[in-house]
Design a protein that fits this description.
Layout (H helix, E strand, L loop, with lengths): L1 H36 L4 H12 L4 E4 L6 H12 L3 E5 L6 H5 E7 L5 E7 L6 E5 L6 H13 L1 E4 L2 E4 L5 E6 L12 H4 L4 E4 L5 H11 L13 H13 L4 H13 L7 H6 E3 L3 H17 L7 H12 L4 E2 L1 H5 L4 H13 L1
Parallel strand pairs: 1-8, 1-9, 2-5, 5-8
Antiparallel strand pairs: 3-4, 6-7, 10-11
Length: 337
């Protein structure tokens, strides 16, 4: 029995390695196609793609006009996903997202209800300026993101697979915004900060996007192939060293767990979902970077996008002008020793 089992695992490992190498090639072509129309912003593209490859949702935070919408449209095209966009506004209702029942009347005058699906029935949904909508409408979207189905008039309707939400949020200093509650931020696998482009990239944007024709990326994946890659990522082995590093990092960000800097500056820290997100994204990042196994590097690189929306600073730390990013950078530095 023992003998059989070892040959099986080695076969499994061979199959996983072969599948991972095929996925590497696919992910490389996705990167190449996205790069045709999104210039610079490698980190943004990488983290957004990592969320999708890991099967989760991403929150893109940045001022308007930094090509966040263009990125989502481009990803929909390159990944072969049916994409929809919802522009969030203060008067948006849950039914504007989920859909609503309309009354039909046939020739005999008989009336019946028919459900018209809302824009949430997409494989890639862009929720634009999610913090402009009322909490009630936000929670309709966030509940669907968690459960992958909606309930209308007692009927359960499943959302398409794959289903990914890429939400954009304006920085919170802006007028007329409803910040997302902590528990709902936790539903985003990672937070992607979108900054202004570097000089060289901005020059390229000016030259390439103001002429008569713009480059069009090719579709390189299908929804089915994306689901395959997501399943593969969940099967990739993670070494004990990497698992220990993930646990150590996530736990060091919680007050009351023996980290003096955290106790001083952090009001509340990340829950277990942070570690789950890190386990998935570290594997996806390895593939994205052309490797077959996640490393400590992946853990350190993902600390900020995975932890920053899952923790908050104390009033005193904020008064001193500290940011969550500063605290995370300190934790990563400690982790590297």
């Amino acid at each position: 029995m023992g003998m059989m089992k070892t040959t099986e695992t080695s076969l499994d490992e061979k199959a996983i390695v072969a599948a991972a190498e095929a996925a590497l090639a696919d992910i490389a072509s996705v990167r190449r196609e996205v790069g045709k129309v999104i210039f610079g912003q490698e980190k943004v593209v990488e983290n957004t793609l990592l969320a999708v490859l890991s099967g989760g949702h991403a929150l893109l935070v940045g001022v308007p006009g930094l090509a966040k919408t263009k990125l989502v449209n481009t990803l929909g095209g390159v990944l072969g996903l049916a994409a929809n966009r919802i522009q969030f506004t203060p008067d948006l209702m849950p039914s504007d997202i989920l859909g609503s029942e309309v009354m039909d009347q046939d020739d005999q005058g008989r009336r019946s209800f028919r459900f018209v699906k809302g824009p949430i029935f997409a494989q890639l949904l862009m929720a634009d300026e999610i913090n402009r909508a009322s909490p009630r409408t936000q929670s309709a979207l966030l509940q669907a993101m968690q459960e992958y189905h909606i309930t209308v008039a007692g009927q359960r309707l499943d959302l398409p697979a794959p289903f990914h939400v890429l939400a954009t949020q304006n920085p919170l200093e802006q007028e007329g915004t409803y910040p997302l509650p902590e528990a709902q931020l936790d539903r985003f696998l990672l937070q992607v900060d979108v900054d202004y482009p570097e000089l060289a990239a901005e020059r390229q944007i000016l030259l390439e996007t103001t002429g008569l024709s713009e480059a069009r990326p090719d579709t390189v994946l299908t929804a089915e192939r994306l689901l395959d890659i997501q399943r593969l990522i969940r099967q990739m082995p993670v070494s004990d060293a990497v698992v220990d590093a993930i646990l150590a990092l996530v736990r060091s960000a919680r007050p009351g767990h023996g980290n003096a800097a955290t106790d001083k500056h952090v009001a509340w820290g990340p829950g277990p979902r942070a570690g789950q997100a890190m386990m998935l994204c570290a594997r996806a990042r390895a593939l994205y970077e052309g490797r077959l196994a996640p490393s400590l590097d992946d853990v350190h690189a993902l600390a900020e996008p995975i932890l920053q929306h899952r923790m908050a600073l104390t009033f005193a730390a904020r008064a001193e002008g500290m940011s969550v990013r500063d605290v995370i950078a300190g934790l990563v530095k400690q982790a590297k020793g």
